[in-house]
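Long-time lurker, first post. I've been practising inverse folding by hand and with some scripts of my own, and I keep getting stuck on stretches where the structure tokens seem ambiguous. Below is the full token string for one chain I'm working on. Before anyone asks, I'm not after the true native sequence, just a reasonable design that respects the backbone. If someone could post their per-position residues I'd love to compare against what I wrote down in my notebook.
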């Protein structure tokens, strides 16, 4: 990709490239959450997500079982992102507040795809500044790539930009349930209210 393309455009392109497995159409009759879905995953929802091992804000090793203890909105991004990530993660934080008002307890999770700069402290501060309940996670290159691969996200660092490099990455937010795992994704143009409506449907039908 051409590094002179504006960051938002680059990320949008990356998101498109990284999402070829998402098909926008309704769920099947055998899907327990069919009435909640606005999209279907090619190959099935169970092909997305799975175990991961990362570091939390305290530098402690945590697994998906430690993190996904409640319905969770999971986003892969990085704290040095100049435009897209702050908007997306702020939308997710607003969604959590809307869900709180409606009586739903949902956890926002931010996973960094830039472990070289996003130390546990950095990612923890970033998450805490966006929402008091947001969990910030990072890890080694290997740990982050494994988590990204599990969720079929895309990211690629611009190697020629020195210390101020950008990272192309997917921009989907994932709804993950403790027992069911990944069940739905949300595009960045959906409002907090729209995401909250869909999350509520899934939680009501567990």
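-- Answer (accepted) --
I ran through it position by position. Result:
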């Amino acid at each position: 990709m051409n590094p002179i393309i504006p960051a938002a455009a680059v990320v949008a392109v990356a998101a498109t490239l990284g999402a070829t497995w998402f098909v926008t159409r309704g769920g099947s009759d055998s899907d327990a959450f069919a009435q909640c879905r606005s999209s279907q995953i090619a190959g099935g929802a169970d092909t997305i997500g799975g175990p991961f091992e990362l570091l939390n804000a305290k530098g402690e090793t945590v697994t998906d079982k430690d993190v996904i203890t409640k319905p969770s909105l999971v986003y892969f991004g990085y704290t040095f992102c100049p435009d897209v990530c702050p908007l997306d993660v702020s939308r997710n934080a607003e969604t959590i507040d809307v869900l709180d008002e409606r009586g739903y307890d949902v956890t926002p999770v931010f996973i960094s795809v830039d472990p070289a700069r996003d130390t546990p402290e950095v990612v923890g501060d970033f998450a805490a500044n966006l929402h008091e309940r947001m969990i910030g996670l990072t890890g080694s290159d290997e740990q982050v790539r494994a988590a990204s691969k599990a969720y079929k996200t895309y990211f690629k660092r611009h190697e020629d930009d020195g210390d101020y490099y950008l990272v192309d990455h997917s921009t989907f937010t994932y709804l993950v349930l403790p027992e069911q795992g990944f069940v739905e994704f949300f595009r960045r143009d959906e409002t907090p209210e729209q995401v909250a409506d869909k999350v509520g449907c899934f939680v009501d039908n567990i």
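A couple of notes from the structure itself: The first strand starts at residue 22 and ends at 23. Confidence is low (pLDDT under 50) at residues 1-21, 23-27. Happy to go over any region you disagree with.
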